[in-house]
Please model this.
Amino acid sequence: MNAPRQIPFARPWITDEDRKAVMEVLEGHVLTHGPQCKEFESEFAAFIGKGAHCVTVSSCMAALHLSYLHFGIGPGDEVIVPAQTHSATVHAVEWVGATPVFVDCDRQTGNLTPQGIASAVTPRTKAISVIHFAGIPCDMPAIMALATQHGLKVVEDCAIALGARYEGRHVGLFGDAGCFSFYPVKHMTTGEGGMFVTRHDAVAQAVSRLRAFGVDRTHSERSIPGMYDVPSLGLNYRMSEMQAALGRSQVRRLKDIFKKRAELFERYRRFLGTVKGVRLVDSTDPKAASGHYCVSVVFEPPYMARRDEIVMRLNVAGIGTSIYYPHPVPRMTYYRKKYGIEPAKFSNASHLSDHSVTLPLGMHLENVDVDLVVATLSEILNSLN
Ligand SMILES: *Cc1c(COP(=O)(O)O)cnc(C)c1O
Model:
């Protein structure tokens, strides 16, 4: 018997130009504090759009942590966070000693809603954190109006939302900070890495110092080599020149990346529409343009309770899968033990975590792969009847 065709869940897209760009850095002498990071920051800003100021960092989690540190959020403060997200979104709040206040998501999109956020605001609330789930942008104008009304900072977790726009404006440009990830399975990669994005040059300058030990001047700003002062506390959350060179090479291909993802997603959407008992996580908001990060399928009756069985059979058939996200954050052991929040308070997030599967999407796929994934899923579902 032939081995079934393998369709991995995700693969980083690394080309010869990418390898060449990294090797060029290694053939020189500047491995950090160099021109690659600077160029990457301005090229990424050009992609995000007018008004973006960018700071390269070691990860999205670092960008999130720097956001709260910079805004001076800490013990006694509350930060509204989504229940349905990566733990990093909430860890960053925990690390500054503030209290995360979990809000359930919308069942259709997985995103926070302005109403949900409004119901969680208290006199102690200092900030709102949102994630644009599956690449679908949140209703940012409404969320920003709410934030302005209550004088709150907004931190956008854009780790899976590159290419997502609301009313034509890229996510990360609405709030006070936008945090992007270049982890291997995201839209583009630098191995590990991230970008802090803000509309304010002064914020970018301050965060740039904060992520480099809090020193007061960069190498190029020093009149005497090695001479600097440290006026404030800082961290080392820098990106290396090798990573930035890889990032620059990848940014040049973003157009291809979004074109392909959109085509594959549309094909999934069309074919999954003919399969009974499944629902695609998607948005019907005409102002929301998705970055098509992933294809998350939610099982409905009669398959709702059979997710794990369906996943195992997909994997046996050679189809890689994942789950976005495996548990709502308040259900993760650390948060459950610390806060013990009633699961009924995040039932939509639990619904997504417990009854969905995320199917392969990315540059490693062809149209025929989508056809095969949907046909295989369909066969598995039929056999369960
Ligand atoms: C992947 C992810 C992160 C973490 O990104 P890193 O760059 O690995 O720190 C944060 N938030 C969300 C929503 C993610 O999906």
